[in-house]
Amino acid sequence: MNSKILITGFNGELGSKTLDFLAKKNSKIIGIDLSKKTILDDNIDLIQGSISDKELIQSIFDNNIISEVYHFAALLSQTASNNPELATQINEEASKNLINCAMDHGIKNNLKVKFFFPSSIAVYGPRKIHNASEVDIIKPTTIYGINKLAVEQYGTKKHLESDAKNYGIDFRSIRFPGVISNDTVPNGGTTDYAPQMIHAAVNNEQYVCKLSEQTILPFISINKTVSSINQLMNIDTINSALRVFNIQEASFSINDLYKFIQSKFSEFKIEYEIDFKFQSVADTWPSSLNCDEAKNKWDFSSSENVETFILKILNKMMDK
Ligand code: SER
Fold this sequence. Notes:
- By secondary structure, the protein is an alpha/beta fold.
- It folds into 2 domains: 3-177 and 222-246, Rossmann fold; 179-220 and 249-288 and 298-318, UDP-galactose 4-epimerase, domain 1 (Alpha-Beta Complex), CATH 3.90.25.
- It has helices at 13-24, 54-62, 77-82, 84-108, 143-165, 193-202, 222-234, 254-264, 276-282, 292-298, 306-319, and strands spanning 3-8, 29-33, 44-48, 65-71, 112-120, 168-176, 178-180, 207-209, 216-221, 244-246, 250-253, 270-272.
- The strands form 3 sheets. It has a 7-stranded parallel beta sheet, sandwiched between helices.
- Strand 5, helix 5 and strand 6 (168-176) form a beta-alpha-beta unit.
- Helix 4 (84-108) runs parallel beside helix 5 and helix 6 (193-202) packs parallel to helix 8.
- The protein is globular, with a radius of gyration of 19 Å.
- The N and C termini lie far apart (40 Å).
- Serine binds next to loops.
């Protein structure tokens, strides 16, 4: 049987781009998402279903040889805060179940299933720190951060157990900053203001921002996100007990972003209506991430400043 790649959350921002990327490499893919999508490609089998449906997940592993898992299905931070029980069920419990299934599958089939988990800057807190390294203070204050951290730790533990057994899972994770896409506008996250502002400017719309202009957070473009995931997953072995890596391209304040967008779209206007639910979360997340571990262990590279970073995204949007 040919081995396949399992992608959960194939309709989400990261999931859909990763699906496209892997499909172009002619990988055999099984996807699962709550909503449907049809792709006419014999290599791709997309299933409509929930990641918390244990029987469905088990049947995917029982009926296929799965060599890699990309687990994107999740609720974003603000949606998670509004539904903490559902967040724990999807973001933590279903993730742990998926890790367990992948681990058992690896042991049963004498392989190490590569497992990618997208973590987040939300694992940090309770105070905002600068240049956060992987081992800096991680006391998340949100349910989203708590669930992400629990899965990071669970996956790392299962990875170490697999090392001892030689089979099981090969857990790899990235702590993502805010992701900015040139063609989709996210919803339900705390970092959504940056892509929303850029898209508003391009579409000649005014923007109402829920965070203060001094708020500083780190960001990465969707293209760099997908290429970094691919880079991390393509390495045969990562010689590191640390399994979760920080990456970013640029970090900037909302005012810096506004000023730069305005230099290109002079009509663009922003209004501030601070929402405590958003501000109180952003104030616990780092203003920037230290990427040294990713640079050393798997050659992650990035050398952007705010201007070149935003300009590249704007140029992509204008190209369409
Ligand atoms: N970008 C995500 C959010 O804002 C954090 O990982 O929810």
